[in-house]
Write a structure and sequence with these properties.
With about 350 residues, the chain is of the alpha/beta class. It has a single domain (about 1-330), classed as TIM Barrel (Alpha-Beta Barrel), CATH 3.20.20. About 40% of the residues lie in helices and about 10% in strands. The chain contains 11 helices and 11 strands. The strands form 3 sheets. The protein has a 6-stranded parallel beta sheet, with helices on both faces. Strands 8-9-10 form a 3-stranded parallel beta sheet. Helix 7 links the parallel strand 9 and strand 10 (about 250). Helix 5 packs parallel to helix 6. It starts with a strand and ends in an 8-residue tail after the last helix.
């Protein structure tokens, strides 16, 4: 298996994509709004993706956060609130906020599994900071580490109970970005003490989860030259060391412009720095081929981490909620889920 997760271009696979995925055999896939038209179509697509690699439970990821980051939208799927809705509720009732977050994740998880998606890129553990860019913004669960940690735990628990694997992101913290990392490299020019006190804290608390996604962010206090994704120092000393995360570490999307160099350079440098898995999302076939040329097969410790992630939920009991009842309970605490 290739240490990569790839996207595809449209609502069904082309022959060229099918041939490439069969030959490359990536560990998993990711879908975006461009790939999601109807439940029937999406179910067919996820089945086709898995058929190319011959693994019926191959991981298929999505960013289904709620709010403005939602790949599944009405009229076929419900509209969920952003992370900030839980943050606002937590300001007056943290317990109600965590219960609500967990319940929303049950609903999201049930919708995802129904169309063959088994991994959601949540929880967001980035602590929102003053004057930061809206690239995180209202996606965050709060402006303090405790609130983010508590809601993040509830989000992860809700997804796991629904049968969907969570990914903590963006490690070691994206809440200080003042520019959009999709377009340029953000710099978090703050002291190590500030990072340790605030940014790292939620990731430490949830470090036992099986998967994490890096931040395309430069932290001069940690490494003045390389962003976390391609920094051996940040990955070894902070992510694996101080934070204590020993699960499967994937990059954020390599096609984001925060990283310099060619797409192949980005893949190679990320693996050399210590990432286990490459994430490439835009579905451009020639870019995926370039990534594949620079990406190794999963082996040794990375293979073990990938296996542990893929089987993490096998022995966990599933919890199913009644959507109408859950939506009513959420409404009682001011959390709105728009039905279809």
């Amino acid at each position: 298996m290739l240490a990569a997760i790839f996207g595809c271009e449209g609502t069904s696979l082309t022959k060229a994509e099918t041939d490439f995925f069969r030959d490359a055999e990536p560990w998993g896939f990711i879908v975006f709004q461009r790939n999601c038209e109807t439940p029937q179509q999406l179910s067919a697509l996820t089945s086709s993706l898995r058929a190319t690699v011959g693994r019926e439970n191959a991981p298929i990821l999505i960013d289904q956060e709620g709010g403005r980051v939602a790949r599944l939208k009405p009229p076929h799927w419900r509209k969920y609130p952003s992370g900030d809705a839980f943050a606002q509720l937590a300001a007056t009732d943290l317990e109600a906020a965590t219960n609500a977050a967990k319940l929303v994740m049950h609903l999201i998880g049930q919708e995802l599994l129904a169309v063959g998606i088994n991994v959601d890129c949540l929880p967001i553990l980035d602590v929102r900071q003053p004057d930061s860019h809206d690239v995180i913004g209202d996606r965050a669960y709060g402006k303090d580490a405790k609130t983010v940690t508590e809601i993040g735990m509830a989000v992860a628990e809700g997804l796991c109970e629904a049968g969907v694997l969570p990914i903590i992101k963006h490690i070691p913290g994206h809440g200080r970005a003042r520019v959009d990392s999709h377009l340029e490299l953000p710099v978090a020019d703050v002291s190590l003490d500030d990072l340790q006190t605030v940014d790292f804290s939620p990731f430490k608390a949830l470090s036992g989860l099986p998967m994490a996604m890096t931040a395309h962010l430069l932290y001069p206090a940690l490494d003045p030259e390389k962003p976390a994704t391609t920094s051996e120092k940040v990955i070894r000393e902070v992510i694996r060391g101080e934070i204590g995360f020993d699960g499967l570490l994937m990059t954020d999307d390599l096609s984001m412009e925060a990283l310099g160099g060619s797409i192949g350079d980005r893949a190679r440098e990320s693996i050399q720095a210590g990432c286990d898995m490459i994430l490439h999302c835009n579905g451009k076939l020639e870019e995926m081929k370039a990534v594949a040329r620079e990406t190794p097969q999963l082996e040794e410790r990375s293979l073990d981490r990938a296996h542990k992630a893929a089987t993490y939920l096998n022995e966990r009991p599933r919890v199913k909620v009644d959507p109408a009842e859950a939506i009513g309970r959420l409404a009682d605490v001011g959390i709105t889920v728009e039905t279809v």
